[in-house]
Structure formats: structure tokens, C-alpha cells
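Exercise: predict the structure of this protein bound to magnesium ion.
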Amino acid sequence: MKIDFQKIATFLYQNDLDKTTCKMISEDFPNLSISDAYLIQEELKKLHLIENKLIGMKMGLTSKAKMIQMNVTEPIYGFLTSKMMLKTDSTLSLTNQIHPKVEPEIALILKDDVTKILSYDEALNVIDYACSSIEVIDSRFNNFKFTLPDVISDNTSATKFVLGNERIKVSKSSLANLKIILKIDNQDVEVGNTSDVLEDPINSLCELSMMLEKNNLVLLKGFVILTGGATAAHSVKHGDLVSTVVESVGDCSLNVI
Ligand code: OOG
Ligand code: MG
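Solution:
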């Protein structure tokens, strides 16, 4: 059967707007490939950008903890829009979400465009600053279950994110081997290390540049890059105070209402 990428993207977009879930795309299209999925994601991006601005990209499944939790085996990327960015120390309203989970991440802000594959040193040079962040993911699929092509089509479950206030300059290995904790109501719920993200979150930017080059996409000056959850993600409920605490980088928090 021929796959109509635009139709699938419209369907996923509608689920996002209506806050409803659906069955996996791969149930109807078992041969859906990873490259098909990125084409669906491009169609989905066009729909998001009718009313919002593209402000960054995210990497997903860059840590073993996330791969094991979601039962998939390779990193993926998605896009971030102005609608997804929450203000620091702001609130996440559960009425605008389906079954959200939070994960602790390192974010990188770019000071230049990226139009080629970056080496580690080139990646360092293109980063303006790093900060802590909380990514809120919310799958449009029933029970948060998907295959790799499904989750890529669904923009890697992207829904919201928040950045910490502290801006950290980066140097070689400065973001590696730092304790990173996800707290809810001041209790540790996940404890990891930034090295769990591809040995060093900077490598996540290098990997992203490689994946984008294959698909003829670029990164722009000012983009926020989420490097991927360092630990498994955690469900949230009404009243939770969520925070990411990263050694030497700072905290970031979010109230769930
Ligand atoms: C896919 C998104 C993964 C991360 O940081 O690993 C992700 C998912 O788990 O739903 O954002
Ligand atoms: Mg993430």
C-alpha cells in the first residue's frame, strides 16, 4: 500500500491538538521505514510551523536507560517549536496533555548555524552555553507504546520543555560525568550521570549534525538542542513539583497543575 505521509502527519497533528491517542501507524503500515518516518515528521513540522516558530531540535533515546525503558535501540531526533517552550519555573497544565512524562536533560544553545557534520571540537565551538532542562514528553500513541518509525513520525513524543536559568560555558569534557537528578517534590526519583548521554552530551549534538546532514537539514544560530534524557522518564500528576538538578550546571523546575 502506498503511504500518504501528509495524511499521516495531519492525523498525528489532530491527535496532538485534541489530546487524544491513536493506534501505532506501524499497525496499518508494517513496512514503514525510518526514512519514511522522518518524511512524515517533516510534514508534521510544516503543520506546526503554520502558527509557531522553529526554535530548536531534540535528540531522543541517547541513553541506555531510555532505550531500555522504551524498548528501542537507536537515537532519534525531533523538532522544537515556540509553543513547546515553557517559561523557567513555570507550570505545566495537565488539561493540555495526554499522559505526560518528564525527563532530566542538558540543553545546548547554539551561537552559529550548523550546516555540516560536527566533530567534538567543532561542536564545542558552536555552543553558546549549556543549561539544565526538563523535557516533557507525551506520546500520541495508546499507552505510550511505539516502534522506532512510529515515534519518529510522532516527533519523538515532543510536547513541552523548560530551561534552567543558569547559563554555563562549555569546554572539553566539562559536561561529562556530572550527577543529574530528577526530583519530584524534592525527592530523588531518578539519579543518573551526564555521561549516560552518549558518554558526553556534546556527542549528542555531533550525532544530531550527522543525522541531519543525511536528511539535508540544518541547525540555526539561537537553536535550543535537547541532548536527550539521561535517565528513564517519569510520569507526573497534579500538584507535582518537578526539578532537574545537575552538578555544576544548575537546577530547573516545573509545577504540574
Ligand atoms: C521518545 C522520546 C525520547 C529522550 O530524551 O530520550 C526522548 C519517548 O521516550 O517517548 O525525548
Ligand atoms: Mg527527551
